[in-house]
Amino acid sequence: MAMFREGNTGAIEIRKQKRADLVAEELKRLITQRNLRPGDKLPHEVKLQQMFSVSKSTIREALKSLEVQGLIRVSTGPAGGGTIVEVPLDRTFQLMQNYLFFKDVGIADIYTVRRLLEPELAAGAVPHLTDDDFKALERTIDLCDPASAAAATPLLDQRQEDLTFHDILAAANPNPMLRFSCELINEMIRQLVVFGNDTPACEHEKFGAANVKFHKRIVEAARQRDAETVRALMSAHMEECTHYVTRMNGRVHGRLVLDSEMPRRGRMLPADDE
């Protein structure tokens, strides 16, 4: 099968597509047209073969393509077939990082975006935070607070708990685009931001103490349902985070994220010896 398009020179170029790729595209249209949601099933393989007049192997290749993209889960057996799934953040992060790997993204780029988005994310979450959310936020603070008995967490693990604080706020925000963008940035920081080996532990301690101070004030304002104060506090918090990360020689360790890393959350690691 082939698709036709006009090239830059005005000539007609022919771009051949595999039959399985065309079927995968049609299946995406089917998912859209039928408004299928996570948990819904695609028609069985035999039905799909009849619908598209193709072989079993072509259908299976098309289904595998959609599974790799994270759109479906394929199971075998009499009740098997393709089931719609919600594309996981980890898979999206992997694809995004594979794209950004070739774009020379630096720590300043990440924190520029973070300073813009996090204040709005936090303010928008305020009306929707539940008692369980507040308990979870306070737990992350306790794990990082030097004055807390729970704060026996290693310093670099504390940086992950700091990000968990922001993830909780993201989960409470009803804006899916804002939530996705901030969760993606948090995941990039977890997996790709490293600090130089010469960064003294006292710098991590100062960074952690500064985060705890802001997180406590943000939670207090959020409990009062004061979204404007939360916005202002988060803005100041992000400015201070940028200052600390820069001073601690934080950098993006550009790499392709492996499939074996997908099922778990990453964490910020010390940089390798250079």
Automatic annotation (TrEMBL):
Q: Which Pfam families match?
A: FCD, GntR
Molecular functions per Gene Ontology:
DNA binding; DNA-binding transcription factor activity
Q: Print the keywords alphabetically.
A: DNA-binding, Transcription, Transcription regulation
| HTH gntR-type domain mapped to chain residues | 17-88
Q: What is this protein called?
A: Regulatory protein, GntR
Instruction: Give the originating organism.
Output: Cupriavidus taiwanensis (strain DSM 17343 / BCRC 17206 / CCUG 44338 / CIP 107171 / LMG 19424 / R1) (Ralstonia taiwanensis (strain LMG 19424))
The taxonomy runs:
Bacteria, Pseudomonadati, Pseudomonadota, Betaproteobacteria, Burkholderiales
